[in-house]
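Supplementary Methods, section 5.1.

A reviewer requested that the exact input to the structure prediction be made available. We therefore reproduce it here, unchanged from the version used in the analyses.
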Amino acid sequence: MQLTVLGATGPIGRLVLRQALAAGHRVTVLVRDAARLPQGDDGRVTVVVGDAASAADVEEAARGSQALICALGPGKDYKSTLATRTAGPVLEAMAAAGVERLVWLSALGSGATSRRQSRFQAAASKLVMGTLMADKGIADETIARSDRDWTIALPVLFREGPGTGDYETIPLDGTRGRVGGRISRADVADFLLSAATGGAWVRRRVILTR
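The structure derived from this sequence is encoded token-by-token as follows.
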């Protein structure tokens, strides 16, 4: 399968890329700095240098793919507006490139999803990452209003360590109450890839925890 990955040099995106290649997929990545991509010489990887906030750049990276995985993250910038700056251009580019499937990495605590966080994690997120989570929430709503076949992934707090393959997927609109716990980045990457290639959770928001 041909995939496009945004954020392939980030902590989750690079795991998505690694797992996708291990599974035999071909991947186009959009990166700002190709030198930061260890797989740049891999014949299965097509590198497009550009900006995820540019619809033209995203369209170039998306053409010919069956699905786009957006694993962009703000790093340690808790005031980041990256999510809202990229949501619109990504949707515009996908429509122009004829790509229907979008798997979008957000976070539990974005916008109104804080109601599903454990009380401790909700308080910590509001105190430390209030601006970031508000921005993510606005972007999530932009994605959810679109006509793409989207899935929005909402992981809880991250923990260090390898992937386990043993994690929970909980629908945001389900009946279960508040959700806590932690999840490894490798397990989040596993979900993003499986959702993009398997077609599960279309037009759903999914909490990821372990």
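The chain has one domain: 2-209. These observations are discussed further in the main text.
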